[in-house]
Amino acid sequence: MPRPPLDIGTYGKITRTQLDETTWQAETRYRDHDGTTRKVRARGTTGAKAEAALKKKLVDRNHQAGGDTLTLDSTIGDLCALWLQDVDASGRAQATKDYYRRIVDRTILPGLNEVRLREATTGRIDRFLRAIPKPSTARDARVALKQAFALAARYDAPPSNPVTDAYRPPASRKKPKALTLDDIQTLRLRTLQWQNEQHAGPKRAYDLAEFIDVMIGTGARIGEVLALRWEDIDFENRTVTIAGTITAQGDRQPHTKTDAGHRTVTVPAFTVDALERQKARGIPYDLVFPTRNGTPRWPANVRTNWRKIRGDNYEWVTPHTLRRTVATLIEREADADTAAKQLGHTSADITRRHYIERAHQAPDSSAILERLAPIRPGENAQ
User: What is the Cα–Cα distance from 111 to 42, expressed in whole angstroms?
Assistant: First the structure.
């Protein structure tokens, strides 16, 4: 019976031969990606070095031929590293790339790093996801793992995605909450008070009141407002063009989160006033809200200042709450499609689901309920 062929991209037994006092040769049979089995050789000063050189040669040969970089013996750590390379090479926003890397580093690798792909069963992934305490973290991990294993399926390692039928963490029941008009005024006053409390040294976040009025007047994300340049402001026509964002690392990204995010919005008078006050400060930089030395301001620093300003009774309010407030007000006065375009969403469904505060409107049953009214003097019971 003939010897069974090697699998493509694999090799057979390695033999060592001493050619002279200082030279050894290692040799094996390797099945190339065209299906042909060929002998591959490498030399070294010892048998072990010759074999090590041969193995490196085989790895390089596999990669150069476009060979598989994942097998069933690869680990989930290997898979995640390859998947993150794929994410980095994609056209996704830098914030999205950073988000996936944090999920991998903080959640997936601590629990699954050394698990081999052949061991990554639906049951094992299911148990891993259920053991994550926070549902939101479990949801993030599931999203990342599902995408990573979709990549693995392209290498037939494993041939199907074990995450598809694994535990699905419950969706968040947290409803969007918007600020009232009184809330807005209270928080404006607290911002001014906080800015004016400092009497010595460089003034802290001296333009945060203006920053907040631009956020409220545009509905833009915190990173989008921080990325505004003076060339994006048209004072005559009262418009602001959202054309970039600041990443978590403090870099200005010359595009928004999505294509729909690149937009020009007409702003209210109070936002124009805030921008004119900022302009009057004579800031000698392209950015509207830079640091003192002209570099992009980090979103995390703005959030830190905001936590100091808002007070205990507004602990639930984040800069993103301002965005939800804009969406809610526009939807009530106009419609969800208008709100979505203001916020730069690709779909009004996103705006409705995550940004607009609403109570369910019950049908008008008041005429029916009138039968339960109390009997007035002179009336007979029916």
Answer: 39
Total-model pTM? 0.65
* pLDDT for position 268: 93
- Provide the 8-state DSSP code for 64: H
Query: Domain residues of the chain, as ranges?
Result: 15-64, 76-153, 181-196+203-354
pLDDT of 368: 65
Q: Do the domains spanning 76-153 and 181-196+203-354 agree at the CATH topology level?
A: no
Candidates 3.80.10, 3.30.1490, 1.10.150, 1.10.3470; correct CATH number of 76-153? 1.10.150
According to DSSP, the residues that pair with 24 across neighbouring strands are: 18, 44
Give per-residue pLDDT as tens, 240-274: 999 999 988 888 988 887 788 899 999 999 999 99
Residue 162 confidence (pLDDT): 94
| Separation between Cα atoms, residue 199 and residue 197, nearest integer Å | 6
In the sheet where 15-20 sits, what is the strand order? 15-20, 23-31, 37-44
Instruction: Identify the segments of the chain with pLDDT beneath 50.
Output: 66-67
Give the containing element (helix H, strand E) for 138: helix 135-153
Which CATH number is 181-196+203-354 given?
A: 1.10.443.10
Bridge partners of residue 18, in order along the sequence: 24
Distance CA 375, CA 382 (A): 10
